[in-house]
């Protein structure tokens, strides 16, 4: 599974690519400082050539307490959920952790796994942090689990409101009611017939059913199944947080993650996929603190 997603990886022995962010100070007070940095994406050069110029560089925000040396601090990299396109929400989550000497690094990218591992490597080797972690909400939580699994050293790993696979929200959760299955069926039929147009009757001619289309999507999205990834170096420092009434992520999916990673912990907050996050920020912060304490 890991080799399919990351052909050059050798599981947890895959070394992160070194990066050197260029930093500028956004603001600072007597007790804290916010910097923003830019670094060239760690994607393969062949992929970079296929990307638009604005995607060649990754952006990161770095909120740190002042007057504390890095070896006495921790830092958590916060990954983006679906539709989270700025630093603001994740900085609000991490800001109150400054009083616990926990810095927050927010990565503004979607190709996050390799870049997040590189930032963690930078935090350890260049910045001198003693404890590190990664967290994310929803899709960002899936990515956080992948990063925690693949990172070569023990880190705190905190998937928030995250499924064990993208199959779950799209084929089991509420997204299945919003997916244009007929369009996907026509697309699949057109590919089968080796034609370029998506004729309305193509699906009928080839006999492709909606259920077959769902099965194809399941097959593609199964590449994101975190339960097939290696167990993190320190599973005791893994805390999953699920929501009791999450229409996107059913309870069984969260439990699949804990089952795959013995020693990890599952916590629950009340509410749905969105409301639980806005209503229970303190619970997510507590999970971050506790996971770092287990390193």
Automatic annotation (TrEMBL):
<dbReference type="Pfam" id="PF09752">
    <property type="entry name" value="ABHD18"/>
</dbReference>
<dbReference type="InterPro" id="IPR029058">
    <property type="entry name" value="AB_hydrolase_fold"/>
</dbReference>
<dbReference type="InterPro" id="IPR019149">
    <property type="entry name" value="ABHD18"/>
</dbReference>
<protein>
    <submittedName>
        <fullName>Uncharacterized protein</fullName>
    </submittedName>
</protein>
């Amino acid at each position: 599974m890991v080799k399919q997603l990351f052909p050059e990886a050798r599981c947890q022995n895959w070394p992160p690519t070194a990066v050197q962010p260029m930093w500028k100070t956004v603001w600072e007070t007597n007790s804290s400082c916010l910097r923003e940095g830019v670094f060239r994406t760690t994607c393969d050069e062949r992929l970079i050539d296929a990307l638009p110029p604005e995607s060649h560089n990754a952006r990161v925000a770095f909120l740190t307490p002042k007057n504390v040396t890095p070896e006495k601090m921790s830092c958590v990299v916060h990954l983006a959920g679906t539709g989270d396109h700025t630093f603001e929400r994740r900085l609000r989550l991490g800001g109150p952790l400054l009083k616990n000497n926990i810095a927050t690094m927010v990565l503004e990218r979607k190709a996050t796994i390799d870049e997040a591992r590189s930032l963690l490597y930078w935090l350890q080797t260049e910045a001198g942090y003693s404890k590190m972690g990664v967290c994310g909400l929803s899709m960002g939580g899936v990515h956080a689990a992948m990063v925690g699994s693949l990172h070569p050293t023990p880190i705190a790993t905190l998937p928030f409101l995250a499924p064990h696979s993208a199959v779950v929200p799209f084929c089991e959760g509420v997204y299945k009611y919003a997916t244009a299955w007929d369009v996907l069926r026509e697309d699949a039929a057109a590919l089968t017939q080796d034609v370029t147009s998506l004729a309305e009757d193509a699906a009928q001619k080839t006999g492709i059913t909606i259920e077959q289309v769902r099965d194809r999507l399941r097959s593609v999205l199964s590449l994101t199944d975190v339960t097939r990834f290696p167990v993190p170096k320190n599973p005791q420092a893994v805390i999953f947080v699920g929501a009791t009434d999450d229409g996107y992520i059913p309870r069984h999916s969260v439990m699949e993650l804990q089952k795959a990673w013995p020693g990890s912990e599952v916590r629950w907050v009340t509410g749905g996929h969105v409301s639980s996050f806005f209503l229970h920020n303190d619970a997510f912060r507590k999970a971050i603190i506790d996971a770092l304490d287990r390193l």
